[in-house]
Every structure is written in C-alpha cells, then in structure tokens.
Backbone:
C-alpha cells in the first residue's frame, strides 16, 4: 500500500472522529454571539487612540451581551433544572 493511501486513510478516520463531535455539539459551544460587540469595541479603541473613555458604550454593550448569553446558557443547562 503506498504511503499516500495510508496517510489518507488516517486523515479520513481523524476527520470522522472530529465530524461526530462537531455535528453533535451544542449550539453555542464553538460560537460566541457577542463576538461582534467585542470586535466593535476593539475597532473603537483603535479609532480613538486607545482612549477607553471614548468607547464606554461599546464596552457596556459587550458586557450586557455576555451577561445575557451566560444567563441563558445557565438557564438552559441540565444541571440548573
């Protein structure tokens, strides 16, 4: 059996294992719905010479989003029921 074939088979087996994990993950396990707010706050910082006072609204929006998201995750977790 050529080395390429063996390597491809190993790759396929590794992908099958990873694919099962990703296809059965919870909705937010690999996704942060607040990432847009984080990106906006960083852009604001760059735009305003890293003056935190100029970007307070962006930081507050991120904190509010993160708090709501974590509360939703906690309420949906099987341990809290």
Residues:
């Amino acid at each position: 059996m050529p080395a390429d074939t063996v390597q491809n088979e190993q790759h396929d087996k590794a992908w099958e294992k990873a694919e099962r994990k990703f296809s059965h993950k919870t909705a937010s396990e690999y996704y942060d719905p607040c990432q847009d707010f984080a990106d906006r706050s960083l852009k604001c910082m760059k735009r305003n010479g890293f003056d935190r006072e100029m970007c307070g609204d962006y930081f507050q929006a991120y904190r509010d989003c993160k708090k709501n998201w974590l509360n939703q995750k906690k309420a949906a977790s099987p341990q809290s029921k």
